Input
Amino acid sequence: LKKWLMDYDTAFLGVTVSVDRIALNPWFGTLLVTNLTVGNPPGYGSAHLASVGRLFVDVDMGGLVKSLGHRLTVDKVHVQNVDVVYERSLSTSNVEDVLKHLGVIQSSTGAASSPSGPSWPLDFRIHQVNTSDVWVHAELYPINSGVSLSVPNLGWNNFDEEVMPKSNDEGIIIVMATLLDNAKRVLRL
Output
């Protein structure tokens, strides 16, 4: 599961992903990921783009079993202790480079790139999504110093109805892009 998560995210985000620990309880349908680190795109000097202290996912196991594995309903996703490191280059930033890879913003050629991650052939639904304790740190080079600011928490009580993603990948992109965009806004960039 740990290798799949890191391989999927690397293909999907275009950067390396590492995880210290994954605890899966298939009986209760819970997944706890601790110390998830999203690496930087090539050319940036900070240790990472983002780190997540705790990612908790609660799945409706009854619905999954009843549908014979064809319907996966995530009742709750809670992302805690997030640290986003915003680093500028001459013409872009590490955050913008990842958003371009995800197809959220257009590249300098005018064409939006599209993620290459796999898509699951099942009915996938997400209900509650929340973030808490999110910070952005702006790296100021060449003095190796910066400023840290708190980012507003995100929250959707019924993600599928409020956001209406067209696919599971699009749902992940929306959460990631909203989190990174909020980090940029806090810095007023």
